[in-house]
Request: fold
Amino acid sequence: MFVELKKLNQVKTDTFALSPAARDFLPLPEGGEESPFWVWQGEVVWGRLSAKSKPPWSALLIDPQITSAVEVWSKAIAQIGQRVLAHPLIKASVIQVAQRLMIPPLFPLSLLKHINEPATRQRWEQLMRVSNLIPALQDVLILKDIPLKIFLFLIGWSNDDQQILAEFLRKSTWFNKTSVSRCREFLELLHETLNSEKRPLPFIIEKLESEVKQNDDFNQFYQNQKSWLWQRRYPNLAKRQSEIERLFQSLKVPSGMQIIPPENMEGAQLRVSLHFKTKEQCRQAGQTLIRIAEENSLSQILKLL
Amino acid sequence: MIYPFKFSQLWIRREIEHELLTQNVRRNILNFIPEIKIVPLADARDEENARQRFLQESVDPYGDAKQILLLTPFLGQAYKVCPGTDGVLCCNLRIVNFASGCPMDCSYCYLQGYLTNPILSVYANVESIFQQIEKMVITQPQRKFRIGTGEITDSLVFDPLTEFSRMAVRRFRQWPNVTLELKTKTHFVEGLLKEQGHPEVVIAFSVNPQRIIEAEEHRTSSLEKRLESAQHVAAAGYSIAFHFDPVIVFPGWPEAYGEVVKEIASRIPAGSIRWISVGGLRFTRVLRDMMRLRFPSSPLTYGESVPSTDAKFRYHKELRIHVFATFKDILKRFHLENKMYLCMENTSVWKRSLDRLPLLSNELFGRPVLDPHETPFAKF
Reply:
């Protein structure tokens, strides 16, 4: 049996082998088995599945789990239609179901193109591994458009660690409210801290929760937790930055003016940002700069860069 | 000798079958890998189709591509200026790509995040590549050129098959204004030893302490073999260079690198050493992700590396300055500090670690290899 997955209004068709058992679970249209095509309508008007018998595939194995697989697949395709496909967990579920329906050496890599992924065995395997993340973690991460690269390191975590992370994120006040980029940043930083310190996740999470106090302002709470992790991830750089910050404070830069060090202390240039409305404010800013230029702290800052 | 890379397939494009290099590879590869499957490719389209089919079915395209060796023509401009990177001092190296990709598998190798085509490719039309170089160098006799072949491959890793180094030495010694640098992590110098050595052919060994070689430089030659090879080629009259790049920080790194320098100093005459480059571990975001994917147990991306001015991750500046200053001290103990230069570093790090800038000192390459009108570090 062949199944053809067609996107309406597109000429391109992908054909892949399907277990004959799947035929029994696909909703049959009128015409039955005599018809060269079986048209199956999903939950949305996005696509159709059509199948026809082909001799080479008539003796393929039966997957006893296929009933639920078809159901999940239907939902996944429906979600494709609802344009929520970008989420790696949805893509992973599509691939997982496809894999359950099809015979191992014949996985239709071209299916990946339909979900905007490179049609390679490598990506297929990666998405399969993503689909094996524990349900509790999937339930939390599906709420955010977390990119695939984050999932690629999470798939290396043990089930216990996945459970702990799921629990931590579930009760984090900021996780649901803050932006995707911040969530991504936090997860990356957590992963890096674990690897740089070579400590188990429970140890880090426990320390994080005990040392960073809850804050009603979720933004501030997020910043504090992130900053705590950052200091553990880059202990020497953090020490250096706090030295520089201390020197900056001693410069007594007035409001309306900022002296900005290079990011991550890379580069050797400082930037000055000035805000003024009047000539007098401009003149005062100039005088302030002249004063700062003579400060010993500035010499020390320049020396450190 | 034993050639350690067991390619499963040799792909040969029809239009380069007659080339000397192709004949060398066909002859030598059957000695090393009698069971290899030879696949003829009719044209560029055939090559592209074969490549796509192979890569599509691979779970680790970059790693799996090391199973295949492709002999193909090079059709573009054969020499380029090393692209360097934004905000760093650049040594004006010219690069000639006679091959692309490498069968060795260093965890930090930048090619993983750089090459769009991971299939190991050797360009068989070497004569036309040489002609391009010749045109460049003989029409500008007043200029000095330093040309390297190890930018997107290892200069000697295919040599037991291609015998390219012998052809290169014969041609490059005809051009008095050119220094050729062959950079390697192998010990494959047999071909070079069959030719008369030449001081303007510099055999550059990329080195690291043996424990780093074992942990991160997979399928490369041991430090001992590299140093032994350096001794042989130095004795044969070639110049030698060493690249400590990337320097990796780990507990006890100063002692470990000190031992390597001590070995070098005790085995290679200082007069044979043209330059020693030192570069800190660095990687793009793309490479970082690739390293974590392909070498999940490697600790390299989890050091204190942060995005630098060119967006590449490097050890933070204070650490780099400390590393390079320490290196200078190590080299000084063996009177080799004047051979040292920094690879891909900015002026601030140069000044604070070495107390100088290359513009202010002309000792960098031992003799004025570079055009005096084109400063050694033009981007400065």
Q: What stands out?
A: The beta strands of chain A are 2-7, 13-17, 40-41, 47-52, 257-260, 271-274. Chain A has a mean pLDDT of 74.
